[in-house]
Request: fold
Amino acid sequence: MLPRAAALLPGASPGPGRFPPPPARLREPPPPRGRAMASAGGSARAEAAGPQGEAAEEPEGGSRRWGAQHAGARELAELYSPVAGVITADFLSGLFHWGADTWGSVELPIVGKAFIRPFREHHIDPTAITRHDFIETNGDNCFMTLVPLANMAYKFLSFSPEALYETCPWECYVFALIIFITMTNQIHKWSHTYFGLPRWVIFLQDWHIILPRKHHRIHHVSPHETYFCITTGWLNYPLEKIRFWRCLENIIQAVTGEKPRADDMKWAQKIK
Reply:
């Protein structure tokens, strides 16, 4: 016991077969605490690199903290994508309505009699649409949306649940867009019907979920140059405030020299 105790004393001899420890000034100093932690973190990141590196950076549950795959972003997309589809349908109804009301002539081959003439006649007799049956009112729009609906049905029958979950916001947007495009002419017909409407239709009109009757009257004031959106009418006021249709008309008139609604005014005077 004495030799070992003596070896532990400062300046004591290490004894036979032992080497003395190096002096304190020659020993390698320990790295600073911050540098050691950074080195450890760097090595950990290097080990996590590769196919499993991205998964290591994600929080528990597999939900990212930012971007389109974030759980909150997906919930918002699923909530608002149908509303975006309805707004898109309203804008498209206004764009088509504006084009048929403002440009072209009844004398144009095929397009004139099939598409433009009904719009001219509608300004002369707005209630004529209420005497059309369901097929005459909605047939064209239903035929136009048949292919997108068939494509959506194919996806639901053939895609895996995981693939459907990934495309859910987009499919909700497309479905709402298709449904409201299909119903646009029927909603327009209801806006000219003042007797015998079902209560639920009146409720939707009063709450401005679909095109209200009083709202659509603004368009039928000559020269029929505003409030073209006829699905819900949500975009009529903001588009009018920014003079959207007037700006488009000015651009087209400057490029082509055609005057907006020239044929519509001639048609109205000829009928009178």
User: Anything to note?
Assistant: The CA atoms of residues 69 and 166 lie 9 Å apart.
